[in-house]
Design brief:
453 residues, Beta-Lactamase, Elongation Factor Tu (Ef-tu), domain 3, 4 domains, six-stranded antiparallel β-barrel, 20 strands, rod-shaped
């Protein structure tokens, strides 16, 4: 009995391997997995020394994404850079690049040929991944080996490449744009250049953003009438007050003591004067002393009136109606104040305006009546219109301790004005400037400050 087994059929093995690779390609869940199969597992069908997979965008940009036996691809490696040049030159001829064929180094430019001698002295087979509906080359597989590629191998690789391309397109999903033809590409480039040239004629209003706050227009400043400490407040912040209503008082302990002493001193002076006048009836020579004592009494009376006036001034009253604008009451109680020191404002709630702080680094020409848009933090979607009427020429420190120009703007409409104290961001519009000046003004200013130009 003959026990010799039949030798394996190479064609059946190749066909079985082809079907297995097609199945693995269809089951790939990402381009990364499919790329790994293409550069590493294709070796099971035909032997090769190295495989490289690249992607090609509709604009012709080449990216090497997988190399056999390499975990990650360094885009700046000399070999990878040469591969991009090789593929870039090869895909210029679309009809040839859409077919599987060995590359011919003698048809390459000298710059690429020199790299061929350095990086590859082998046979290189180009296998494109073509998107069937559009004919667009989505990716390409390069196979390197020393032996020539046979027609039978190229035929089988054609079937496998079609399977890879189908799986690649399925993973991408969506519509693939057809590649732009050279003539159309040049037309688009010219159109872009014309658009850029036309854009130089465009002019827009330059603008600047600045922190803003609603403040009172022409408020009455209430100050401390003299040196002392604040004893009591009779109003609260943002309270409506009427003319003559008491606002606050200073501590009166010292002035009351002065008033008591002045009263007693006046009583003593009047007693001395009465005694001198009685004595003058008996002794005419003492009449000169009466005149002196009478002047002393008048001095003590004036001193008493002065102290009484000071006691009246310790109580500060409202000189006009409005709302009180100041910080918390507890911030002032017991606080020493100087003569003329500001304690609060009395403001008319129907007369408000915008106070703006324009940063020095963003300052533009703040013209009179320049348009202003205010976006309040409480309602940023409803801007309020205003116009600039005042801008300082010198920068000053803001309450947040940064340099800025103070500016003020009045509302265009006086209906439903926001309340005093609200804050937001304002946009101030300046003169019309060229579009590119508007876009490059800030970067150029930063560059000048950095380089000291």
């Amino acid at each position: 009995m003959n026990t010799t087994q039949d030798a394996p059929n190479p064609q059946l093995i190749a066909l079985s391997t082809l079907l297995q690779l097609e199945k693995e390609a269809r089951l790939a869940d990402s381009h990364t997995t499919l790329g790994f199969i293409a550069v590493n597992e294709t070796h099971r069908l035909f032997p090769y020394a190295q495989a490289v997979l690249c992607t090609i965008t509709p604009s012709g940009r080449i990216k090497i994404i997988s190399v056999s036996g390499v975990a990650t691809v360094d885009a700046h490696a000399p070999f990878i850079r040469w591969l991009r040049q090789l593929i870039q030159h090869h895909i210029k001829e679309i009809e040839i690049a859409q077919q599987i064929h060995p590359l011919q180094p003698e048809k390459l430019p000298s710059s690429v040929q020199s790299g061929w001698q350095t990086w590859s002295s082998e046979q290189v087979l180009w296998c494109p991944f073509i998107h069937a509906p559009s004919g667009y080359i989505e990716a390409g597989l390069l196979l390197f080996r020393k032996n020539h590629w046979r027609e039978a191998e190229i035929t089988l690789l054609g079937y496998l490449t079609d399977a890879y391309a189908h799986a690649w397109s399925a993973l991408r999903g969506g519509h693939i744009h057809k590649p732009v033809k050279p003539l159309r590409r040049w037309f688009f480039r010219i159109l872009v250049l014309v658009g850029l040239a036309a854009s130089t004629l465009l002019s827009i209003h330059e603008s600047v953003l600045a922190p803003a706050e609603i403040v009172a227009q022409s408020p009455l400043i209430v100050t401390a009438p003299m040196e002392g400490t604040i004893k009591q407040f009779y109003v609260q912040p943002n309270q409506n007050v009427e003319v003559g209503q008491k606002l606050f008082t200073l501590d009166d302990t010292v002035q009351k003591n002065r008033y008591t002493i002045a009263q007693k001193t006046l009583a003593v002076a009047r007693a001395d004067l009465l005694r001198a006048e009685q004595k003058a009836f008996l002794d005419p020579s003492s009449r000169g002393e009466v005149a002196l004592l009478r002047a002393k009494v008048e001095e003590r009376e004036a001193e008493l009136e002065y102290v009484a006036e000071i006691l009246k001034r310790l109580s500060v009253r409202a000189e006009q109606s409005g709302i009180t604008v100041f910080t918390d009451v507890n911030d002032w109680l017991g606080k020493p104040v100087n003569v003329g020191e500001k304690v609060m404002f009395l403001a008319n709630p129907k007369l408000t305006e915008i106070q703006l702080w324009v940063p020095v680094t963003d300052a533009i020409n703040l013209a009179q009546n320049a348009p202003v848009q205010l976006f309040l933090n409480t309602d940023p979607t409803s801007p309020l219109s205003a116009h600039l009427y005042q801008a300082s020429y010198e920068a000053e420190l803001t309450p947040d301790n940064w340099l800025a120009f103070r500016a003020k703007a009045q509302f265009t409409s006086q209906d439903s004005l926001p309340r005093i104290g609200l804050k937001g961001t304002s946009k101030i519009y300046g003169q019309k400037v060229n579009l590119y000046y508007y876009l490059l003004r800030r970067p150029w200013a930063v560059l000048r400050q950095s380089l000291g130009l």
